[in-house]
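Section 5: illustrative case.
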């Protein structure tokens, strides 16, 4: 999959296109990407996704923006797995926020991307102050020569599949509901960084992944971890949080203790799949109490894996 960033240069296309943030790439997103790929094949057009970085809500209101379900790299990997040929990551900042709805259609969609077929949700909004809506796109498509299709909702029982629904499930520790909405177990990934080596001191060495943004879940979990380079999978126990026993107001960190691993992990890319929440993060009265709690977490996680194969 070809990935481009930044300003879109005029003269692209023709393409079949869909637009969205695609945070989490859940079952609703996947249905949208499948529809895009199928119609592009039918029309014999390249298919492309237009997405944004940062998320518009992070630009307008960073303090209240929703947590990210996926880093940009993870999102692009999931979109590529759906068979999409190209993605353009458009920077969301003051210039884009100021573009009128008409300019967005004329300059971005038509002149730069060369859209011939467009798929969006009926709640899609665009242009300065979110002035453009699906009805405006319908009017533009009728006069400016591109086809438009609305993507219907994907349901899980009576619940609409959405990124906010996944966030709610993860925040509640309901990994089973999150998995149903995502169509896969929730995972986080990143490059293993050097830490304070406290886990090694306590007898439970950990692989540490620094979380640049507030994570959508917190606590202690039974996990599976996969090394990107080898696809080797091993089981373990992970902590997501701020380590209140160790330091006040520490940045969020993902720490993974792997059960059957020996070797160097620093600098390697690790994907961590969350399978069962064991407990919330707690502050303990000293390192001895923390060591005891981790030992109980390890025992509980191993018991989970014995029972679930």
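Designed sequence:
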């Amino acid at each position: 999959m070809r990935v481009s960033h930044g300003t879109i240069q005029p003269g692209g296309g023709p393409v079949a296109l869909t637009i969205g943030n695609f945070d989490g790439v859940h079952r609703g997103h996947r249905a949208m990407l499948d529809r895009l790929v199928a119609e592009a094949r039918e029309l014999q057009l390249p298919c492309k996704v237009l997405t944004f970085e940062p998320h518009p809500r992070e630009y307008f209101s960073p303090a209240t923006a929703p947590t990210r379900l996926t880093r940009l790299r993870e999102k692009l990997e999931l979109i590529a797995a759906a068979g999409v040929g190209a993605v353009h990551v458009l920077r969301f900042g003051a210039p884009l926020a100021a573009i009128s709805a008409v300019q967005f259609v004329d300059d971005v969609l038509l002149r730069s991307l060369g859209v011939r077929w467009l798929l969006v949700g009926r709640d899609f909004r665009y242009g300065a102050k979110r002035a453009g809506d699906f009805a405006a796109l319908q009017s533009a498509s009728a006069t400016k020569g591109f086809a438009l299709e609305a993507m219907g909702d994907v349901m899980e029982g009576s619940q609409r599949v959405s990124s906010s629904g996944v966030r709610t499930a993860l925040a509640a520790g309901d990994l089973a509901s999150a998995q149903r909405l995502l169509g896969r177990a929730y995972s986080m990934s990143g490059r293993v960084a050097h830490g304070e080596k406290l886990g090694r001191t306590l007898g439970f060495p950990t692989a540490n992944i620094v979380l640049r943004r507030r994570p959508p879940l917190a606590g202690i979990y039974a996990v599976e971890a996969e090394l990107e380079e080898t696809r080797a999978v091993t089981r373990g126990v992970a902590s997501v949080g701020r380590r209140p026993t160790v330091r006040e107001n520490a940045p969020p960190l993902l720490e993974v203790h792997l059960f059957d691993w020996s070797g160097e992990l620093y600098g390697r890319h690790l994907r961590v799949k969350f399978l069962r929440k064991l407990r919330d993060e707690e502050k303990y009265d000293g390192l001895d109490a923390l060591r005891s709690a981790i030992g109980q977490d390890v025992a509980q996680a191993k018991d989970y894996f014995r029972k679930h194969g």
